[in-house]
Amino acid sequence: MEASPMLPGQSVRLRSRPLRASRAAQCLSFFYHMYGSGVGELRVLLALDGADLPLWRRRGEQSVAWLRAAVEYRAESQHRIVFEATRGPSVRSDIAIDDVVFSNGPCKEIKSHATNGTTTSNEIE
To answer: CA 4, CA 2: separation in Å to the nearest integer?
Structure first.
């Protein structure tokens, strides 16, 4: 998200294609970059049955480096994953994601799981 043309508090969304249902755990992994004095918020939502359920969230400056996140979730009906970035109070609020991977089965690098709450794993690469 390029913050300069946006107003504070404005959001942008990136939605996945429809994803198939599975009773088994599924893993979403990605890299993100949130650096700057005015960084807002990055959220990952599970769009399921007309509702957006929060899976993961980060607010404010995180690191000068790219960070890795892995989110394990379950969805027993067709769904989408939504990345939502919200601009912070200043133009120093750019947020980026990269290398988004969906895989079947649990995330190998995390111990906790998302149901209706938030779970995260961050590693500086």
So the answer is: 6
Whether 33 contacts 67, CB under 8 Å: yes
Cα 42 to Cα 14: distance, rounded to the nearest angstrom = 11
CB contact set of 41 (below 8 Å; sequence gap of 6+)? 57, 58, 59, 60, 84, 85, 86, 88
Closest alpha carbon to 7 in 33, 35, 38: 38
Report the predicted TM-score, pTM, of the whole model to 2 decimal places. Answer: 0.82
Laid out side by side, the sheet with 122-124 consists of 95-104, 22-34, 67-75, 122-124
Per residue in 87-114, pLDDT (tens digit) is 888 888 789 999 999 999 999 865 434 4
Q: Which two tokens stand for residue 28?
A: 């979403």
